[in-house]
Amino acid sequence: MMMMFEEMGFCNDLDTMSTVLGDEDISARQTDLEAIIEDDFSDEEIGVDELERRMWKDKMRLKRLKEQSKSKEGIDAVKQRQSQEQARRKKMSRAQDGILEYMRKMMEVCKAQRFVYGIIPEKGKPVTGASDNLREWWKDKVRFD
């Protein structure tokens, strides 16, 4: 193993290895960090007014963050409801198109003269339809409550 270090250009003293790798920088960073922590948390240096001011700032920051998270949740919920409603309307439209296509085929194949239909969804307004020759009568006479 020593042979490997000698080939790399290091001498037999492994302490120089630690200086090459930057252990001094790590210890200097740790002392800087400890000094910062001591500055933040020393009770003797911070006055009551300063501490109250910091607490007030932190409370205001917390309040702002809570409001932002609530507004994001509200926006997400609204978007989700809108997308669900849009998907429901799209499905209803496809169902209505399917019914109309089926009724048209019935009129062609079975020689049906007229047709009417109504779909009453759980939510939303009813969807109705009729053949051309009954459409006006259907809209005037029939109401869904």
TrEMBL record:
<dbReference type="InterPro" id="IPR023278">
    <property type="entry name" value="Ethylene_insens-like_DNA-bd"/>
</dbReference>
<keyword id="KW-0539">Nucleus</keyword>
<feature type="region of interest" description="Disordered">
    <location>
        <begin position="66"/>
        <end position="94"/>
    </location>
</feature>
<dbReference type="GO" id="GO:0003677">
    <property type="term" value="F:DNA binding"/>
</dbReference>
<dbReference type="InterPro" id="IPR047091">
    <property type="entry name" value="EIN3-like_DNA-bd"/>
</dbReference>
<dbReference type="GO" id="GO:0009873">
    <property type="term" value="P:ethylene-activated signaling pathway"/>
</dbReference>
<dbReference type="Pfam" id="PF04873">
    <property type="entry name" value="EIN3_DNA-bd"/>
</dbReference>
<comment type="similarity">
    <text>Belongs to the EIN3 family.</text>
</comment>
<feature type="domain" description="Ethylene insensitive 3-like DNA-binding">
    <location>
        <begin position="49"/>
        <end position="145"/>
    </location>
</feature>
<dbReference type="GO" id="GO:0003700">
    <property type="term" value="F:DNA-binding transcription factor activity"/>
</dbReference>
<dbReference type="GO" id="GO:0005634">
    <property type="term" value="C:nucleus"/>
</dbReference>
<feature type="compositionally biased region" description="Basic and acidic residues">
    <location>
        <begin position="66"/>
        <end position="79"/>
    </location>
</feature>
<keyword id="KW-0936">Ethylene signaling pathway</keyword>
<protein>
    <submittedName>
        <fullName>Protein ETHYLENE INSENSITIVE 3-like</fullName>
    </submittedName>
</protein>
<dbReference type="InterPro" id="IPR006957">
    <property type="entry name" value="EIN3"/>
</dbReference>
